[in-house]
Write a structure and sequence with these properties.
- The protein has helices at about 10-20, 55-60, 70-75, 120-130, 160-165, 190-205, 220-230, 260-270, and strands at about 1-5, 25, 35-40, 45-50, 65-70, 80-85, 90-100, 115, 135, 155-160, 170-180, 180-185, 210-215, 235-240, 250-255, 275-280.
- The protein is of the alpha+beta class.
- It has 3 domains: about 1-90 and about 180-205, D-Maltodextrin-Binding Protein, domain 2, CATH 3.40.190.10; about 90-180, 3-Layer(aba) Sandwich (D-Maltodextrin-Binding Protein, domain 2), CATH 3.40.190.10; about 210-280, 2-Layer Sandwich (Alpha-Beta Plaits), CATH 3.30.70.
- The protein has a 7-stranded mixed sheet with strand order 2-3-4-1-5-12-6.
- Helix 7 (about 220-230) packs antiparallel against helix 8.
- The longest helix has 16 residues, at about 190-205.
- It starts with a strand and ends in a 6-residue tail after the last strand.
- The structure holds adenosine-5'-triphosphate, 1-O-pyrophosphono-5-O-phosphono-alpha-D-ribofuranose and magnesium ion.
- Adenosine-5'-triphosphate (ATP) binds near residues 10, 11, 50, 68 and 70.
- Keywords: Amino-acid biosynthesis, ATP-binding, Cytoplasm, Glycosyltransferase, Histidine biosynthesis, Magnesium, Metal-binding, Nucleotide-binding, Transferase.
- Its EC number is 2.4.2.17.
- Belongs to the ATP phosphoribosyltransferase family. Long subfamily.
- It is an enzyme of class 2 (transferase).
- InterPro entries: ATP-PRT_HisG_long, ATP_PRibTrfase_cat, ATP_PRibTrfase_HisG, HisG_C, N-reg_PII-like_a/b, N-reg_PII/ATP_PRibTrfase_C.
């Protein structure tokens, strides 16, 4: 099972970090090497440009891929299926035009020119809007084109909006919202290893934002403590091998990280002691 992942750029580090947290530790990789084994002898990793990864998977050079949804759409590959939204690398593809210009709607681009790194997505967007501009492909620094009469507007990526603002461009319409996705070729979907990889990555995402609480509770206060623990399912209650046998039990629960501060106060007030909080590496539901 080969997984193609971004070899550089903003997606590289978070993707490697996610694989490591999912237990797919890379082995005998090296900085300039473009492939690595993992601790699972059946899984190896190929490093490729984010834009090329959909093609690597569609052509069979890799079985699974991790890259931006915008890249998957732009590559227009057939026979791949999305398995998981990895919820990082979020951005939007937007139609933008000079803020002091006269382009205010999509229709204003009829017969105009649009510059973009994403010609396929752009042509599809305008075709669906019934508007027919010239689409000029550039490979970066797209925001310059309206200021040098190369284009009337652009379709480009924005996440913080800084580059658009610094180049005095205003959003006319959102074309697509994107985040990094795990996907696979359709003819490998039934392979158990594909589901194993998907489950491992999903369990890391599921654990994000969750904390594991452990505490000791006198037997007579269990209901009071149980009543103030929020979140998934009920707490786990275990007897304690306790020499002074005062009926104490151990209570464990998974709570959302935003609830931890308040929950600790409330369980202490309800009689809990020795409260421990830990992060969760993976949560397989
Ligand atoms: N602000 C952003 N700009 C560009 N890409 C972004 C941004 N936010 C998220 N992304 C995602 O990252 C992908 C681009 O990754 P890629 O490695 O190709 O470019 P990069 O990280 O900007 O590196 P490079 O400097 O080589 O362009 C986009 O297709 C999109 O999915
Ligand atoms: O909304 P923002 O946070 O400003 O991000 C959007 C900018 O980021 C990307 O450029 P990048 O920095 O990747 O340079 P590049 O165009 O050379 O890829 C993208 O091409 C936009 O220009
Ligand atoms: Mg870039």
């Amino acid at each position: 099972m080969r997984i193609a992942v971004p070899n550089k750029g903003r997606l590289h580090e978070p993707t490697i970090d996610l694989l490591e947290r999912a237990g797919l530790h890379l082995e005998n990789g090296a900085d300039r090497k473009l492939y690595a084994d993992t601790v699972d002898s059946d899984v190896s990793v190929l490093f490729a440009r984010a834009a090329d990864i959909p093609e690597y998977v569609a052509d069979g050079a890799a079985d699974m891929g991790i890259t931006g949804y915008d890249q998957i759409r732009e590559a227009r590959v057939e026979s791949v299926a999305e398995l998981l939204d990895l919820e990082f690398g979020s951005c939007r593809l937007v139609l933008a035009a000079p803020e002091d210009g006269d382009i205010e709607t999509v229709a204003d681009l009829e017969g105009g020119t649009v510059a973009t790194e994403f010609p396929n997505i752009t042509r599809n967007f305008f075709a669906e809007s019934g508007v027919d501009p010239d689409v000029v492909e550039v490979t970066g620094a797209t925001e310059l084109t309206p200021h040098v009469e190369m284009a009337d507007a652009i379709v480009d990526i924005t996440s913080t909006g800084t580059t658009l603002k610094m180049n005095r461009l205003a959003v006319v319409e959102e074309v697509l919202s994107s985040s990094v996705r795990l996907f696979a070729r359709e003819d490998v979907l039934e392979e158990p290893k594909v589901e194993e990889v998907r489950t491992a990555l999903a369990s890391v995402k599921q654990a994000e934002g969750k904390r594991y609480l452990m505490m000791n509770v006198p037997g007579g206060r269990l209901d009071d403590v149980r009543d103030v623990i929020p979140g998934m399912g009920g707490p786990t209650v275990m007897d304690i091998a306790d020499e002074d046998d005062d009926g104490k039990v151990a209570v464990h629960a998974v709570v959302d990280e935003h609830d931890v501060f308040e929950t600790i106060t409330e369980v202490k007030n309800a009689g809990a002691s020795d409260v421990l909080v830990t992060e969760i590496e993976r949560l397989v539901e």
